[in-house]
Amino acid sequence: MAEARQPGGPPTGRSIAIIGGGFSGTITALQLLRWAGEQDRVILIERNRQLGRGVAFATDDPNHVLNVRAENMSAFPDEPDHLLRWLEALPEAERAHIGTSDSAGTFVRRGLYGRYVRDQLAQVLRQRRSTESLTIVKDEAQSLARTGQGWQLRTASGRTVRADTVILALGNFPPAPLPYPGCVDNPWQPQAIEEIDLEHPVLLLGTGLTMVDVTLRLLERGFRGRIHALSRRGLLPHAHAAAPAWRELRLTAEDRRSLTTLMRSVRREVARAAVAGIGWRSVVDALRPHTQLLWQELSLNDRQRFLRHLRPWWDAHRHRIAPQVASWIEAMRRSGRLVLHTGKLLGLEPSGPWSCGSLVTYRQRGSEQVLALEVQRVINCTGIGVDLTGTDDPLVRQLLTDGLVRLDRARLGLDATTNSMLIGRNGEVVPGLFGVGPIVRGTFWEMVAVPDIRSQAAAVARTVMEPWPAGRRAA
């Protein structure tokens, strides 16, 4: 482990505050503790009871499994089989219920994966044999201010936390509220499906991963009614399948010149792979190590074009679901219990005998025909919120108002450098302030899945724990 020493002097302890204890924050704390010196201290601030869960891993629904194979979900980028070894060490009774497994791979229950992350944090603390290495503050961070070379953070309970470095790891935000009464805007809150009539129809806005999650939650609850799902393009996530590695990916400088040339080159690679008997999934997987660089090479205009026109297709192909989950969704479609609608939402009006009932009108894609549905509840499943201008998070609002941070140009999160340091309103890098995970998606694009976040967390930990220059003192 790296020692935090000044040249020729005694150990100098540093304090690093991580705001957010979901997956992004917990994996960052884990990486920091692996690199920290004996006197360094990590402070993890999380308002919820359990660490390492966040939105994705807070579910205890046995049908909610990871959307990425366990073979790619190690917490450590330098130990790719670490999760598999942890699973193998579980008691036999638990191994029988870890998730689903077939030729496409093993897909672990999300709740179990959250336990895996917490176990790794506990293991590192045991190895350090110090209860002072990590302080967990169960509170909500509300404001952050510069104090000399360090930071002062205040929480909802009035606590003051001082730190030399602050890392924002706030995870995913709920979808932006829709301007319609009676619509459940946060699909991940327990109330989204509470007190729901098990027989009458519901409408889910969106047909991506969030829609799949909510559908599975409804099934687990015993819902027997019809589920309607509406989106502009009607695209469902594709299923994982056995995908041999495609090692012949070729992307020249000319291929990367613009979004148009890049898309042509990807189609070319898919065609080349098909000649070799290899499917498109292998080509998409081969792109994964390069997507952050490809995104950063695009102009702002091309990034915006991608978000407007191509993103739904990319998400459906890139963010796939476990084969078993895809089979459940397809069976529901065949039986008529899940009905996809393609079109643009026009409005919601209170209707029906239910407290949250709505008459939904939408314009069918490709025509001027306006159709209507009467449902007992509408749930916003359009995906994670990205435009932070309307966020209700007090810390993010304060940082934006004070100019300590700014939105990235594509408005996907906060602006950051390629080494994850946040950028202020004046365009200058803010020393000692970092972002990890979806909060800096605008810089990296691919920064919502475990393989991307774990690598970023490791890189940030190495940067933060670099030896200090002589004369530097902790805040």
Topology (elements, then pairings):
Elements: E1 15-19, H1 23-35, E2 41-45, H2 82-88, H3 92-95, E3 99-102, E4 105-108, H4 110-128, E5 134-137, E6 141-147, E7 150-155, E8 160-163, E9 165-168, E10 183-184, E11 202-205, H5 209-221, E12 227-231, H6 259-275, H7 280-287, H8 291-297, H9 300-318, H10 323-335, E13 338-350, E14 358-364, E15 370-375, E16 377-380, H11 394-402, E17 421-423, E18 429-435, H12 441-444, H13 450-464
Parallel strand pairs: 1-2, 1-9, 2-5, 9-18, 10-16, 11-12, 11-16, 12-13
Antiparallel strand pairs: 3-4, 6-7, 7-8, 13-14, 14-15, 17-18
Helix pairs in contact: 1-4, 1-13
Can you count the helices? 13
What is the makeup of the main sheet?
A: 7 strands, mixed
Low-confidence stretches: 1-11, 468-475
The separation of the N and C termini measures 23 Å
Shape: globular
Radius of gyration: 23 Å
- Please indicate the percent range of residues in DSSP E strands (runs of 2 or more): 15-25%
Look at the structure and give the mean pLDDT: 88
Portion of residues within helices: 25-40%
Strand order of the largest sheet: 10-16-11-12-13-14-15
Query: How many strands in all?
Result: 18
Query: Helix/strand/pairing class, anyone?
Result: alpha/beta
